[in-house]
Amino acid sequence: MAYTLATVRDAVRDIKLDDPEYEASVVDRFINDAQREIFNSYELPFSEKVFTGTLPSGDYIFDFPDDYQLSQSLKIVDPEANIRTLNDYYLPFRQFNEQFPFPSTRDVGTPTYWTTHSNKLYFSQPTDQVYQLSTWYIKTPTLLEDDLDVPEVPEEFSEALILGATMRVQKRNEDYDLAAALNQDYIAQTDLMQMRLGKRQTGTPTVMGQPQRAGRKAPRRN
To answer: Is the pTM of this model over 0.85?
Structure first.
């Protein structure tokens, strides 16, 4: 059987709720809520993405990809193929704004200090030449709308989506005891997913915290 929004919805309604007539739009919303929660909680392979684009010369504001959520790494490459990693040059927006209130008035130079605001990448000064920018980032999941849409949580962990959605349905139904029990099962599934898929070479699962070096979607500003 194909792994789609429809099959996850059917599992929630037919198996967990024993109510195949339960409102489909409500279940779909809760499936999306569960998937978003997973993306917002962990750094896992299926939530990661790479974007590469061009930073034109003479500008300091650039757009990020629409699905950008949290930067893992930001690198630039100049025309001579010199690579510069900018992870350690991120500044929180308020600090950046105090230190570099008018980047456009500063001399052009190699991109160094940067921040994010309103889904845009800001550098502390205009670029002095054309650069290639690559950002490794955590993406936001694509909204599941059509029956044949495939969830981004892998099929082997579809139970996490099913439990997460069912738990939310029971909260909506004001059956808080059952919702609490389902939440424990949901946590067990997401913990298992984190242990299986979230290991890096150190063997330590990675849990997302507050953005320390957020860098949003990249180039270019029209």
So the answer is: no
DSSP letter at 127 equals B
Per-residue pLDDT of 48-94, as tens digits, reads: 999 999 999 999 999 999 999 988 999 999 999 999 999 999 999 99
Would you mind telling me the total number of residues written for the chain in this entry? Answer: 222
Give SS3 for 66. Answer: coil
Closest CA to 145 of 1, 8, 2: 8
Residues with Cβ within 8 Å of residue 105, at least 6 apart in sequence: none
Instruction: Report which residue type is found at 7.
Output: T
Give me the phi and psi of 150, to 5 degrees please.
-100, 125
Q: How does strand 48-55 pair with strand 114-117?
A: unpaired
The answer to whether the CB of 161 falls within 8 A of the CB of 131 is no
pLDDT by residue (tens digit) across 145-155?
A: 999 999 999 99
What are the backbone angles phi and psi of residue 63, rounded to the nearest 5°? Answer: -85, 145
| Cβ atoms within 10 Å, residue 220 | 13
**Phi, psi torsion values for 72, nearest 5 degrees:** -100, -35
Contact 52, 132 (CB under 8 A): yes
Tokens for 123?
A: 């550098």
Query: Could you read off the pLDDT of 148-190 as tens digits, one per residue?
Result: 999 999 999 999 999 999 999 999 999 999 999 999 999 999 9
- For residue 119 the two structure tokens come to 């889904």
Measured between alpha carbons, how far is 44 from 128 in angstroms, rounded to an integer?
36
